[in-house]
What we know:
The protein is 50% helix and 14% strand. By secondary structure, the protein is of the alpha/beta class. α9 runs antiparallel to α10 (270-302). The chain starts with 10 loop residues before the first strand and ends with a helix.
Amino acid sequence: xxxxxxxxxxxxxxxxxxxxxxxxxxxxxxxxVEAQKEGFSEQFELILVNDSSPDNSWEIICDLAEKYPxxxxxxxxxxxxxxxxxxxxxxxxxxxxxxxMDDDLQHPPEAIGEMIAEISSGYxxxxxxxxxxxxPLWKKLGSRFNxxxxxxxxxxxxxxxxxxxxxxxxxxxNEVILYDGPYAYIDGLILDVTRSITSIDVEHQPRLQGEGxxxxxxxxxxWMKMATSFSVSPLRFASLMGFALxxxxxxxxxxxxxxxxxxxDMAAGWASLIATILFIGxxxxxxxxxxxxxxxxxxxxxxxxPQFTVAALTWKxxxxxxxxxx
Length: 326
């Protein structure tokens, strides 16, 4: 669909990059074709954020930035994770519409036009809902759990899938980047800012090459970030568990006293005693762990743990060369 634009309107696309040296040229080509279709060939930037990838992704980004003037490359000093790398890109965008997508071409660039149309129609955010997902079973089950948890902890609208392929208005981006904490969770930040959200269906594509970088540990870490950085629900859960256990203990004490009074010769139950101690100890450890997560994140935030640190910018290199060779 052809998007009508004025002469000052600009599109920014942010792509966090990790282990994708062989995919990047094809990704850039397909994105540029779609940007041209939508009339953004002159008002368009593609920001590729190298999240300290161990392969030659940064060298490829530098080569692409020399070839295509619309490409901006950012290299981070160490691996900060997908969401923090995306935040690094968002802090450097200049577009009125900003799209975030992965680097593996599982997100079809052909959907860019429809996403732009939704933002242009007045929505603040446009998510994508994957059809025929190409993820393994454990990741699909994890997504369902994350969907449930997001609804409970973040107040996510029912039926909305929080995909990593999304578009935002510049106003929302300006609010999102105000967050400077070390544990960025972009969907949580978005839901804190707006409820003017829509979604479109896209066909999920197979990864062009290699395997995905997200493992089970990464998914668990991301869930913990969501649960403890943008909601106090886990603390409330711990409080409710403590109250419930206290009430249960009082009831059990009452039952034991009554049994002892009615049957003085009743033998003490060692197995039930040990089971009760282990259960209560486990719940206490869980609650202390939850509190520790909050305290730990607060401690790191107060001590200035960085959200990301930038090692190099391709456009700065170009400026330095121009000054050296006027």
